[in-house]
Amino acid sequence: MVSSGMNAGRPARSAFFAAVLLLGLLCTGRAQVYEGRELVQASLLADVNAVVPGKPFTVGLLLHMVPHWHTYWKFPGDAGIPTEIKWNLPPGWKVGEIQWPIPLRLDEPGDIEIYGYHDEVLLLQEVTPPSSLTESAVKLSAEANWLVCEKICIPGSAKLPLELPVAGQNGAANEEIFSRYRRFLPQNWPDPKVAGASWKRNGSELLLSVESAALANYPAAEFFPLPEANVVVGHPKFEKGADGKVTFRVPIETADEKAASLNGIVVFGESANGVARNAWALSKSNAAVSTIGPIESGLAKFLLFGFLGGFILNLMPCVLPVISLKIFGFIQHAGQSRRRILRSGVAFIAGIFAWFIGLALLLILLKSIGREITWAFQFTNPYFVVGMSAVVLVFALNLFGVFEISLPQSANRGLLGWTAQEGDAGSFFQGVFATVLATPCTAPFLGTALGFAFTQSGWMILLMFVAIAAGMSSPYLLLSAQPAWLRLLPKPGAWMERVKQLMGFFLLATLLFLLWVVGAERGVEAIIWTSCFLLALSLACWMKGAFVVPTASFTARIVTIVLMLVLVIGSAWYFIGDKFAATKLAASGPVADGDWQPFTPQRLASELEQGHAVFVDFTAAWCLTCKFNEATVLETSAVRDAFRRHGVVKIKADWTNADPEITKILRQFGRPGVPMYVLYPAGKNAEPFLFPELLTQSMILDKLETIPPNLAPK
Amino acid sequence: MKKKLLITLLILAAFTALYFLREARRMTPGRGAPDSPAVGTNAPEFSVTDSKGKTQSVSQYKGKYVVLEWFNPECPFVKKHYGSGNMQKLQEEFTGKDIVWLTIDSSAPGKQGHLTAEEANEKITKLKMKSTALVLDPDGKTGQTYGAKNTPHMFVINPEGKIIYEGAIDSRNSTSAADIPSSTNYVKVALEESLAGKPVSNPITRPYGCSVKYK
């Protein structure tokens, strides 16, 4: 204090002890002794040995914390308060903003991140004296308030004096400490040629892109935000891009889309929290801002991609049976009027669009009410799977010829209230049905695009789905609009009946898969009860085929229909509503197989804590792509050996029942659903690596070669 | 001939699709969303035991407003609001309006602020707490579900089960009770606005306080 100002030559340390000594006498703040230790020792220093009227100088609040305790930066992060300095200055004096040295980013349990200082910090402020001073010495004082925390937090405060002589000239004081902390201050943002910064708001995320070869060369780069008081931000994440470009992703809770940029500092150095770090202060004026996400450039590409993905859906095994029927329809209609063909084609296309748009609206609705939305989410609901099984079976029976869905003309006119256009309604539902069946087949083609769309606005989701629907329906549109092209298709004949029956078996295979999903979700008993219900349903279908025919009397038809209804509703009530509902969730399904460990967040955390590299397979029983990847890549001996050789712990996260813990992690990686494959390299700060949805052996083998060996023996 | 053309087109389409697949993958946005459930969304369910041994959950209070208050009796920010009687006053006022107020302690055993049921009941008496229940969440599960970062960290859930407010207790990040009279109490404002049928003007604020002492 006095001593520190007067004796420029003395090391800061002794000034500091003198300050401590005085503190004992002068400090009127709350005593901050915890378990016998003074947690923070505070003092004021000046960088000059005397005040020259009108000439600004710098003062510093020196806080000395006992080991492991920290005080806070200007933005404290998830907890804490920034240190506060209230000056008591004579009239005519001015004091500037606090200049904060680069803080440390500190982690606390429970994903809490704070910004603060360990051991020691000097908070600098410029003080400007008035241009004339009459007294021979000035007595300044400031009240400092801080919060110091380790596992617990204790507020502290001190009234600190600073006494300096007034002179016509002055020299430097406390040079070492002031120059040390000035080096720690963030620098002004460099020339845009050195580092061009731009902000983009992308839904609930702010993206800061910095194009700077200089920055990209540092192994550690971080963004510490300085949000305005009413802006709530999450933890920024760093991503290194190609060509000297780095991106920081800052989750933002503030819904106002106008909040599209932040102040903050970009910190870089050899290591995170390292001693030799530098920082650039980013203010809003340094960075270009656009409120539109990167979708603009990607939009056309994504829509085209959705279109092509939709087109390819037609060839998927789950869709083929339905599609083949439609093709048959075209073949049969080949000789008919062009208008008729067009109408049936349009009805089919309408069915495809109806499903996709309906799904998009549902997703938008779910998203707007904040539900975690995920692709193929409906398959995580066992009742949906049972319903699908029933539909698939009924359709297969129809293909086998057990009964006809569309009866000639008037037969079902009275029954179902359809008009003579039942052909069109049939086409419409074929379209819907084809698309419903397509859902489990979409992941490999559309997963990424949908993942992208889900992070966008509702309009984007809708557009994406429309693109997919357009892609899927494009062949039919072409065939309907240009019946001449129908000549490309083979001539109708008795072979069609055979192909239909064959397709029926395709559907039965799909049914087996669905039942297996039911089993994975609810266990063997659930399969049995579902099968019982399906048997009753088949019987009802047979009854319809046998007795509800135009040749039967009206009474016979009515009686049969009543019996059918009783059979279907009764068995659904008993087998599904009662027996099926009583089955328990299968205990994590097929997870315990082989050398895989079942996923829990705790297990993942503890394996990482122990310094193991971890590979997590996010999978689900109903996910065909997952099964395909497992069979062709993950369970091959080459990949298994590689995992063993590198000591990678393998964890299987089974999302069959939409485990919310797993959903959370999928969301963290921006994925709408499974499959997802993540490799966490050993070592605390190693960034997890995300594999594509479709794996190849070489992807895994190559990646494993690049990770550092395990830090701990397995 | 035409068939061949069709097949060629198909193969071309497949390749284009693969190209876009790769492109798309490169552009897929990544990780990182705020961990708290967003305001306006359904409040996540929890089921925890309170100091009296009763089970407390969000769903059992459907049809009522529920206030969640993260609590750690040793935290200076919490002491600010309890020492001054500010928190108890709020609890009394709103529980009097048939609003459920759950005070939640997510401190892990061995960490600051951890309370056994018995200690919790002593605290209720000593601090004259007026909340509906003091809920004990020593494994931090409920706290993590809500992304509760601070004590006090406040959430307000409306009768439909939606979160309508998340953030700080009031507008002044300090440990000094002297600041309370000049602060805007966000929780009080949110409840009063919502009770009057108005939208909450400040639905998200930056919470302040100690970190929750998770294990």
Q: Which labels suit this protein?
A:
heterodimer; A: 714 residues; alpha+beta; 5-stranded mixed beta sheet; 42% helix; disordered N terminus; B: 215 residues; 7-stranded mixed beta sheet; two-stranded antiparallel sheet; 33% helix; globular
What profile does the largest beta sheet of chain A have? 5 strands, mixed
User: Percent of residues of chain B in helical segments?
Assistant: 25-40%
Distance between the termini of chain B: 71 Å
Q: Distance N terminus to C terminus of chain A?
A: 56 Å
Please mark out the parts of chain A with pLDDT under 50 across 5 or more consecutive residues, or reply none: 1-30, 291-297, 406-422, 586-592
**Looking across the biggest beta sheet of chain B, what order are the strands in?**
2-1-5-4-3-7-8
Output the helix-strand order of chain B: HEEEHHEHEHEEEHE
In oligomeric terms, what are we looking at? Answer: heterodimer
Total strand segments of chain B? 9
Q: Mean pLDDT score of chain A, rounded?
A: 77
Q: Unreliable segments of chain B (pLDDT under 50, ≥5 consecutive)? A: 16-34
The number of helical segments of chain B is 6
User: Rg of chain B, please?
Assistant: 24 Å
Overall shape of chain A: it is: elongated
Largest sheet of chain B: 7 strands, mixed
Structure write-up:
The complex is a heterodimer of chains A (714) and B (215). With 714 residues, chain A is an alpha+beta fold. Chain A is 42% helix and 22% strand. In chain A, helix 6 runs antiparallel to helix 10, helix 7 packs antiparallel against helix 12 (458-481) and helix 18 runs parallel beside helix 20. Chain A is elongated and about 120 Å long. Mean pLDDT of chain A is 77; it is low at 1-30, 291-297, 406-422 and 586-592. Chain B contains 6 helices and 9 strands. Chain B has helices at residues 2-27, 76-83, 86-95, 117-127, 141-146, 186-195; strands at 47-50, 55-57, 66-70, 100-105, 133-136, 150-151, 154-157, 163-167, 210-211. Chain B has a 7-stranded mixed beta sheet with strand order 2-1-5-4-3-7-8, with helices on one face. The radius of gyration of chain B is 24 Å and the shape is globular. The chains are: A alpha+beta (714), B alpha+beta (215). At the A-B interface, strand 11, strand 12, strand 18, helix 5 and helix 11 of A face helix 1 and strand 9 of B.
